[in-house]
């Protein structure tokens, strides 16, 4: 049989680190009030990174990809599939993936974006796994990359304190032993209004509001339940139980959602990988960023079983169980 396995991870954060205190001071200058205490208590976020104005998702993603390639001992020329999960692509088209491919100095292999907002990475990993198992690819780069700072309204304190920029990547290769054990993806478009950027381009203009809009409490209420269901589905599909999970690596949106999911899966909190404190919510980039941080710090080791799970705009959600 043919399976896929992660053979290398990498990530990249833009250098500018903005603490809650820095952000509070910046917002205060616009008459918007917030505080480190409020942000830490409600979300667990202490700092985030923001890209400079000329840096795009393909720039951040290319750097994360180079690091993942190095970790896997692969050259970009060996890659035969590139998938980028992003909701903040460089342009309306072409895809960030096509632009990123060129930045890696290669050409020819298929490259495309997956748009599932904060569930983007679990969607992209599932697509790459399916393409590898069917034989249409053998060495894939799967990347999550975002510049959410571009779509934040810094006059809206209920959203602008939550998000950050960054990228994470994995190299996924064909293997005789299973790495991706199971995945479970969902969407329900009736919830479009609780988390969206309604703006678009038409007639040469931006039409509608091009800022992120979120009903935080509605998102919160939906998130914990669907994440538990998706996690249980991948356990069942792979014949595993909660006790087999070495690390829970959820989308890093809010520490309370993450702890709520860990509790529902009866996992001790020390099995939860947390980077939201330093990264904020980086949407499709958050899971591969957290994975790479956990690999490089020595937490996640070869052979560990990882539960990756994401939830986001759409509404979309899903989980992937991985033998690392
Ligand atoms: N600083 C200070 N006060 C604030 C801020 C802020 N940044 N933001 C809101 N407040 C105030 C509100 O105005 C409100 O004041 P009021 O009571 O006087 O009206 C008070 O704080 C409480 O606001 P709530 O919205 O009720 O706060 P809540 O406890 O629900 O926390 C939060 C808000 C953190 C957004 C929470 O709802 C949440 O985490 N939701 C999930 C969001 C999420 O995870 N989204 C991402 C998932 S999908 C994706 O990643 C794209």
Automatic annotation (TrEMBL):
NCBIfam families: fabH, PRK09352.1. Residues 235-323 form the Beta-ketoacyl-[acyl-carrier-protein] synthase III C-terminal domain. The last Arg residue of the ACP-binding site is essential for the weak association between ACP/AcpP and FabH. Keywords: Acyltransferase, Cytoplasm, Fatty acid biosynthesis, Fatty acid metabolism, Lipid biosynthesis, Lipid metabolism, Multifunctional enzyme, Transferase. One of its GO terms (biological process) is secondary metabolite biosynthetic process. Its main location: cytoplasm. Residues 112-189 form the Beta-ketoacyl-[acyl-carrier-protein] synthase III N-terminal domain. Pathway: Lipid metabolism; fatty acid biosynthesis. SUPFAM superfamilies: Thiolase-like (SSF53901). The keyword Methyltransferase does not apply. GO terms for cellular component: cytoplasm. The keyword Acyltransferase applies. Belongs to the thiolase-like superfamily. FabH family. Homodimer. Coiled coil: none annotated. It is found in: Cytoplasm. Residues 252-256 are annotated as: ACP-binding. This is Beta-ketoacyl-[acyl-carrier-protein] synthase III. Pfam families: ACP_syn_III, ACP_syn_III_C. It is an enzyme of class 2 (transferase). Catalyzes the condensation reaction of fatty acid synthesis by the addition to an acyl acceptor of two carbons from malonyl-ACP. Catalyzes the first condensation reaction which initiates fatty acid synthesis and may therefore play a role in governing the total rate of fatty acid production. Possesses both acetoacetyl-ACP synthase and acetyl transacylase activities. Its substrate specificity determines the biosynthesis of branched-chain and/or straight-chain of fatty acids. One of its GO terms (molecular function) is 3-oxoacyl-[acyl-carrier-protein] synthase activity. Its EC number is 2.3.1.180. It catalyses: malonyl-[ACP] + acetyl-CoA + H(+) = 3-oxobutanoyl-[ACP] + CO2 + CoA. The gene is fabH. The active site is at residues 118, 251, 281.
């Amino acid at each position: 049989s043919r399976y896929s396995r992660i053979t290398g991870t990498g990530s990249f954060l833009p250098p500018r680190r903005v603490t809650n205190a820095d952000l509070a001071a910046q917002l205060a200058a616009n008459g918007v009030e917030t505080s480190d205490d409020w942000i830490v208590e409600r979300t667990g976020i202490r700092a985030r990174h923001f890209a400079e104005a000329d840096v795009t998702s393909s720039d951040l993603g290319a750097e994360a990809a180079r690091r993942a390639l190095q970790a896997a001992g692969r050259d970009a020329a060996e890659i035969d599939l590139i998938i980028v999960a992003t909701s903040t692509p460089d342009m309306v088209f072409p895809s960030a993936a096509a632009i990123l491919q060129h930045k890696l100095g290669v050409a020819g292999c298929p490259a495309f974006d997956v748009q599932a907002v904060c569930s983007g990475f679990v969607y992209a990993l599932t697509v790459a796994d399916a393409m590898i198992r069917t034989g249409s690819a053998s060495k894939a780069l799967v990347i999550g990359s975002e510049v959410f700072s571009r779509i934040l309204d810094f006059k809206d304190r209920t959203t602008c304190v939550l998000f950050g920029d960054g990228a994470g990547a994995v190299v996924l290769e064909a293997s005789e032993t299973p790495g991706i054990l199971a995945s479970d993806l969902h969407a329900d478009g009736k919830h479009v209004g609780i988390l969206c950027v309604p703006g678009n381009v038409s007639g040469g203009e931006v039409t509608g509001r091009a800022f992120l809009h979120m009903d935080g409490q509605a998102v919160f209420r939906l998130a914990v339940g669907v994440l538990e269901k998706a996690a249980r589905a991948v356990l069942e599909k792979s014949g595993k139980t909660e006790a087999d999970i070495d690390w829970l690596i959820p989308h890093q949106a809010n520490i309370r959602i993450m702890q709520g999911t860990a509790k529902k899966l009866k996992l001790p909190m020390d099995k939860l990988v947390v980077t939201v404190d330093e990264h904020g919510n980086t949407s499709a980039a958050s899971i591969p960023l957290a994975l790479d941080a956990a690999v490089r710090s020595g937490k996640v080791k070869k052979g560990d079983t990882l539960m990756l799970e994401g939830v986001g705009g759409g509404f979309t959600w899903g989980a992937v169980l991985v033998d690392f």
